Structure formats: C-alpha cells, structure tokens
Amino acid sequence: MSKDSPRIAILGFAIECNRFAPVTTAQDFEHDVDIRGNRIVAEARSGASITLPDLPGFFAEMDRTGPWTPVPLRVSLAQPGGPVEERFFKTFVAEIESGLRSVMPLDGVFIASHGAALAEGTDDPDGDLFAAIRGVVGTAVPVVGVFDLHANVSRKMIDNLSVFVGYLKNPHTDIEERGIEAARHLRSCLAGEKTAIAMVKLPLVPPQISLLTAKGPYADLVNYGQTRVGGDIINVSVMAGFAYSDSPKNGLTAVVTSRNGNARAAGELALDIARRGWADRESYKRAMMPLADAVQLARQVGRDKRRKPIALADVADNPGGGGRGNTTYLLRALKGAGVQGVFFGVFNDATLAAEAHRLGEGAIFTASFNRDEHHEFSLPFDCEAKVVKLTDGKFTGRRGVLRNVAADMGPSALLDLGGILVVVISLRCQCMEPRQFESFGLDIAQARIVVVKSRGHFRAGFDEFFKPDQVYEVDCPGLTSPLLQNFTWSKLPRPVYPLDEDTEWTPPPSP
After folding, report:
1. Is residue 391 classed as helix, strand or coil in its secondary structure?
2. 168-197 pLDDT, tens per residue?
3. Which long-range contacts (CB under 8 A, 24 or more apart) does 223-226 make?
4. Is-above-0.90 flag for pTM?
C-alpha cells in the first residue's frame, strides 16, 4: 500500500433499468453524466456537483481523514430507462479494465453504483463490471460500492466487493452520507480490516409505493437492521429491489457486511432480517386513488380555498423508474373537468418546448403534446396554451434528493392551459425539487393542486408545502404502474409475492 497517500481508483456506473422502457443509449448518458479523469475530481469537490451526492461525500470524507490520491477513471450516470445498449456497456467495461491496468498498482477502488442495471446481452451488468474490476486489481485490493436501496442484488455483485453500502432512506436524502460511510469503510480496509459479505433473498417484490422509509413495513425492516450494526457488523443494507427490471435478480435482499472476516455473523443477521421481512409481507400491499376520484377531489380543492392544497402523484409515469414523463391521462382529465389552480410538472416533450421557444413568451397557440412520441402510453393531447415563461432548464436543487446538485431539464417552457400551468421540459427527469417550478417564478404555496410525475422522491422536496395527508397517489396507466399484474413478466422469478398470493419461502440453512 502507498502508506503516505493511498491511490484510490474512482469510477461510477449508475442507472435503474426498466425492461419495458426504450433502450438506454450512449446519448442518454451524455445528456446526464458521462465524465472522465480530472473532471470527476473537479465535480466531486465543486460544492454543486452534476453527479449524485455519494461521490462528493466520499471525497469529502477521504479528504478529511488524511492524505490520499484519487485516480479518476470514468463516471457514467443516466436517467432511469430501458436496458443499456450493448455496445455502450461493453465499451464502458473495456475502458475501465484498460484504465485500471494503466494505473496499477492501486490501494483501493470506489464505485458509485446503483445496482439495478440491465444491458442488452446481460441481466447482471453490475456483477459483470465488478468481476472485471476484481479481475484486474486482484483479491487483496479493497473494493467498496454505494447502492440505491432499489438495487437488485446478485451473488456475483457481493462476491467481488469488500463492503456493500446501500441507501437507508427513501426518498434518498442520505446519498451523501452513504458516500461518507463508504470512505470510512475503505480507510478501515486500508488499515488491514478483513471483511465478509452475506446476502439472503426473498421471493418478495413489493410495489414501489410501499417502500417509503418514514414509516411502514420497509421502514421497520431497515430500522431493525440499523439496530444490529456494531461489533463485527459494519453495514446492514436492506435492498428492496426494482420490480420493473424484470430480472432474475429481483427480490428483497438483506445484505450484511462484517469485519474480522466473520461470515457467520453476517449470514445469521441476513437470515434474521429476511425472516422478519417475509413474516410481514402482507403489509406491503397499498391502494391508490382512482383517477376519477382524484379529479373530483382536485375540483373541490380548486374551488374551495378553505380546503388544504393537495399534491397528486402520477406514480405510473415516473421518469425516476423509467417512465417517459409524458402520459396525458391525468392532464386531460383535469383539463376536461375544468380544474383550476394547478401546477403540473414536469412534462417531457422536447418538440413542444422547442416550439414554445420559437414562438416566444406571450404567444398563444395550440399546444400539441406528444406530437413526436409514439409509445404505448404517450397519447397525444391538443390544447390552447399561452407561453408564460421560457428558461434554459438549469437549476441547482435546494431540498431533498437534489439538494446542492446541479441539474438540467434542457430548454423548458411554462405553459398556461387556462388554470393549469404546465412545466414542459426537453431532458427527461422526474419532478422532485421545488426549483423545477420556482425557476419559472412560481410560488408553490399559491397553488391549490400540484401534480408531480414522480413516485416518491418529491416527498422530500415538497414536504414544506404538503404533509403526508395532503398527498395522493393516482392510479393511471404507465410504465411504472404499481399494479404489477399489469405487466407481462419474462424473467421475474416466479412465484413471487404479492403477484402470486400463494408464494412459499423456505429459509436457507443457518450459516
């Protein structure tokens, strides 16, 4: 080891893949984050990075705890979408392998990951990448990764890591903390600590809306795991998985990392957590509000100022889960019912945003939503609109998941459909940050109804405006519908609960 200044390779590959969504291309990564070399270091230490916060957190803690030498390779992140195109993924892995060989010897590796990737030709690109890394650096070099709690975990993934660090919060407001934690574990490994990782997977694939960590069955399981951290247990990660990956790796998974090579302690705790999760499986069922009921409620709230404002979550069209961010079911219903006082965000339609920019602020025209989109759920909708304000779509988040993150929605427009103000964007992303409205001069506190195309992350950004009893998840069609029976599954392990009510699970033998 380079004792005075350990050399740590830095890389990232993070995408949450929905098998039912269009293929994710190289251009999708370019539109989000695809950076190399010293740009990675500059972003990590910038104070408003374009990367996820785990990277800045890792750098900050490594900087705080002593000298080190970052060896930046490549960080590639994309908005959730379909499986990654084969050429991009294979080229990425090859670049990482050649990059590692060119900078050896190394003292450690940090991976900013997600864990729910798919790629054309492989259902476990994360495991493939980790195995490739381990194949270059060898078994003695510590490799630490940070993962979204929606990761679909494989044995190949954990077998090629030294420490597995999963998010603890949903919405994901602790990503920076997990980067800090990863740095601490890496420092311990550099000092000679020997680790072991165990995992136990359940035939349980909960709907995504039942996986919040403020309260509920998943919160109980995550919190229980944290009470067991200590002694030889250094990390407990309860990975709920991402259903729409439709992957052989699907299933809620307890992942435990221990020190002193204590594989038995890790295995016993992982099994304990899995048993608890299975015993509470029925608690993961959760109902949504029918579309007609949501529209009726919105009409009442829009007319009666004595009622509390509400937020309607279009959870089935969540770009954060691979949705296109452009279904019109809820928009058309609200407009057809004459609902007033609505802020609607954000609608992904680059063609419409570009037209608004050509026409200019103040223009009145027929807005044709989804003119150039031809997806199953991306139905067209025409409506008279006024261009209220135009922006470049860039903002820095101030709350929740995107706090201090530099984000870009692409050229964007605020359109007034007559009582419904719609933010139209060019680069697909979910609505989870107040700045996505405020950058257009809107005061969210003045809205009667706020519609967000998001599954849950908006809760951490908009909780200053809406308490939990003011938030309603609306049942609409879409690529991220929580009604899992709406999908034709091809690789999801079956039987699985709650899709198959009679699913049985036999716990593996105690380690």
Report:
1. strand
2. 999 999 999 999 999 999 999 999 999 999
3. 224/273, 224/276, 225/254, 225/256, 225/269, 225/273, 226/168
4. yes
